[in-house]
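Collaboration report, partner site 2.

Our partner group contributed sequences for two proteins of shared interest, and the home lab folded both. The records are reproduced in the order in which they were received, starting with the first partner submission.
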Amino acid sequence: MSEMKKFNELYLKMAGLERRVSKLEYGQQELNNVVDPQGWIGEAFEHLTEDMDNRFADVEQRLDELNGKIDIILQHLTGMSNNNKE
């Protein structure tokens, strides 16, 4: 009878562990769905990176245009061009 009692205790412990593991697995799935459902956070960062790259390229283009305009103004004021520098 003692072996049957040990068996029942082990069986109950095993059943309890199975329930706990199931709860943990379900909880992990829920966290995954809350933290990054359908991978939308990663996708959002990709879009953000793409947008920032486009904005930086636009700013660089505008700076190049401004530098060109400043060069023309300086040439006009000084009468010197890049070819006439002595």
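Second partner submission, folded after the first:
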Amino acid sequence: MKKALCKKKWYFFTIFLLVQCFSFLTLSCGLDVYIVINPPVRTHTAYYDSNDFTDNYFSFDTNPNNDSTGTEVYYKIYNTYSLMSSESGNISNYSSNDDYKAQAYDKLKSYSYQLLKIEDYNESPIIPHRNGSGQKVKIRLTDYQYSEEYSASMLIGDDKVGGKPIRSGTQGYNFNFGRVSEGENTRIPQEGDEDLGYSTSTSSDDNESDWYVVLFAVNVKLNADYTYTYSCPEYLGCVKINSSDIDN
């Protein structure tokens, strides 16, 4: 009888050790553990083929929960529709597929998407988290009709922050491509720019004066160990900027 009890105790002890070892290996020896935070919610989609300049803006709501440090906005410029559609579509597919969601942010970065900046504004993340409620964000990349209502800007709620949206880097280039009368910051994108997806495989639908700009929003969490966790990128849309048109 005692022998049977000893065998039974040994059996349960062995099972306990196996469970502990598996847990340890899962957490520290090769199997990734992903922490999921909610992405922003798109409230208006910008369409590259819109003929109404009043619709050429991006808007979304940030994460109202306390699992976020804030929200970053990423962008990339393209000279062809096909490359823009391929890369942005792949990122969106990763974000919407449960099997690949954990790699969606890495896919965004692998395509060299850059952080959107704002003149005279240095918050990081660009939209800080506000406890208890989400924030409504609206972004226009270019000026239209010389109207304040349709000027290049970022609004958080009803408040405009800083100046115009600008490209990554230290040059301060904005998105009013080709408007030379407004100064050198309106420089047209050039092959080799880190925020430009450039392709020589153009089609009859492409115009050398057209530039496609895609935006994604990503919620960010600063962890206790000072690493960051990122939500799936939320597609905000794409605008087409014509560098030969003052109302581009």
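Feedback sent to the partner group on the second submission included the following. Residues 2-28 form the longest helix (27 residues). The chain has a mean pLDDT of 85.
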